[in-house]
Amino acid sequence: MGLTSQSTGFGALKEMPELHVDSPDDTVIALAGNPNTGKSTVFNSLTGLKQHTGNWPGKTVVNAQGKYRHNGKNCCLIDLPGTYSLHANSAEEEAARDFICFADPDVTVVVTDATCLERNLNLVLQILEITGNVVVCVNLMDEAGRKKIRINLKKLSQILGVPVVGTNARKNEGLRELKDAVHRVANGCQKTRPMNVSYDEAVEKAIALLQPAVEKLAAGRINSRWAALRIIEGEKGLLVSLRKYLGFRDVYSEEDAGYKELERKIGEARALLAESGIGTEAVRDVVASAIVEAAEKISREVVTFETENYNRLDRRIDSVVTSRTWGIPIMLVMLGIVFWITIKGANYPSELLADVLFRLQGRLSGLLIKAGAPGWLHDMLILGMYRTLAWVVSVMLPPMAIFFPMFTLLEDLGYLPRVAFNLDNFFKKACAHGKQALTMCMGFGCNAAGVVACRIIDSPRERLIASVTNNFVPCNGRLPTLIALSAIFIAEAAGAIKSVAAAVSVLTVILLGVVITLLISKLLSGTILKGLPSSFTLELPPYRKPQLGKILVRSLLDRTLFVLGRAVIVAAPAGLVIWVMANVSVGGISLLDHCAGFMDPFARLIGLDGYILMAFILGLPANEIVIPIIIMSYMSSGAMLEFDSLDDLRRLLVDNGWTWLTAVCTMLFSLCHFPCATTLLTIRKETGSWKWTGLSFLIPTITGIVICFTVTQSVRLLGLV
């Protein structure tokens, strides 16, 4: 095992992520930057596969660590959360600020976007106020060149007083120079003279008044000028961090002379500002304005646009894809195409994979019999666990292997933020936050990930709304169920356009989920979570040429196989439980039949049956196993069939009383029912409340019951089944 933060001087910083370093001499590098600057690409290109991910201690903010070796030295790179500011308005900003301030990394690399350098310089200037051990990485130089944007990197370095390196991380261009610059700064071979932003005269006097008192308490452990400025601004989070990491106590309650002096100086500084007409609330605006003006000035000096229409093509595309007339229809068509390709392309590989896996079953069965395993053990392992696993893999893997790369393609292209833009107005009308559209998109992959993504919403009220309603977006665990049932029952009635009909039906269910999300958000905003929507700024990144190779690797390894692995881990014990319930009898009736029979009357009212409802309940660990549970439940032996195609599944379901109404209600209940266990635990961790976790369970479940009951009774009343 390598050394950790406990053995490299970080031991006092209990809230910092544990650093996986091999030696105290390793170089610790913080990687900071705005979202959409290619920061993750820089991180991945530098570290390769030598990466480690985890959560910030005490937070749900994810951190990623990686290693690389340069000039005979090991470098530990920690990828800080993407942020536009260090004013700590969110958990991400707080985590990034605290690591740079208190963990004292050897070097902080700030990744910027060459196509919009001016905006990125705001963060650069804020970091330079904290530390001079900075290297500025101007990434996406290729895109800047394509848009005929020229950046004088040498002059930028002279102005900022720190090394500046231009890169194209996608093609590994400039990374050698970046490593060299980091090495020089970390080892003191290059002295930096970080630029300081000049503020209003009154603010500067206030800083000068307070700085000596801060320095006396900080003892050189933090930039006293920066800390004094933040204290003047009244940033409460910083005072908490000062107590946590540096031993600062509450300056308003301590008797210690040093703290009494600090308290007195804070009062004097604020009085001085008040005399100049700058109240406590206005200080932050004055400071922010100064930073923005400095960034604008620097940008004018170093950035040259050969043409004023450098982003003309992007604007032309956006005028169509984000327009009121065409934005929503294009979005629907794009999603429809994704689902059509997924459904159309998954059939054959699913059949092929199922054939391979069930052929393997025969060999495994033969090995157990040859080993003299008892019949009950053979049936539990093969007919229970293995067949469930085989179904999960054969049904889930092909659709995910198609869907995730396509979804990642849209993300890499820069289209997903446009989806959020198109939906922003709808969420505003529902008194929810526009960023909820982004968290909803994350929910397509995994609802737990969508809940975690709600951290980007600053308002606690709107964050709760987004967390509670995220489950109305069908995750990858439910999409195979929707796809399979639409292909079996909906598509069969469509004749020659089977795949189109299946794609449209899945898209319709998803749109219904969006509508329900908006309605429930509106309901919550008018009842237990009253409030008005807050405003926000949504960045639309430039359109970029997708990197197909990296898309395939990222989507297949990071998403498809990760989700599949989770499903497999859950499916195996679930298959065992179902087998036991189906084969252990009480009074000549299996436990599964007892439970299903008890629930059947209620299930019939909402268009299901007792076995289907039991499948959803037993599928709480993961939505992926609902269909396998249904299949096993219908088998008297508790074992799954060896399906050669979806036609076999259709025959099994029809033989057990399924109609198109049953399929529709199962799809609707799959959309609207309680979240999986992973999502519920994530909600509990994010909210810190069992109350909101319980409501997150009840609200979608009650919604699903009401919708299914209404549809079922209406169809029966009209005599359509």
SSE layout and pairings?
Blueprint: E1 27-33, H1 39-47, E2 51-55, E3 62-70, E4 73-79, H2 91-102, E5 107-113, H3 117-128, E6 134-139, H4 141-146, E7 149-151, H5 153-160, E8 164-166, H6 175-186, H7 201-218, H8 224-233, H9 236-246, H10 257-275, H11 280-302, E9 303-305, H12 312-321, H13 327-370, H14 375-413, H15 416-429, H16 436-445, H17 447-453, H18 460-469, H19 479-490, H20 498-526, H21 548-583, E10 585-586, E11 589-590, H22 591-605, H23 610-618, H24 626-634, H25 646-655, H26 660-671, H27 677-687, H28 690-717
Parallel strand pairs: 1-4, 1-5, 5-6, 6-8
Antiparallel strand pairs: 2-3, 3-4, 7-9, 10-11
Helix pairs in contact: 3-11, 7-8, 7-10, 13-14, 13-20, 14-21, 15-16, 16-17, 17-27, 18-20, 18-28, 19-20, 19-25, 19-26, 21-24, 22-23, 23-24, 26-28, 27-28
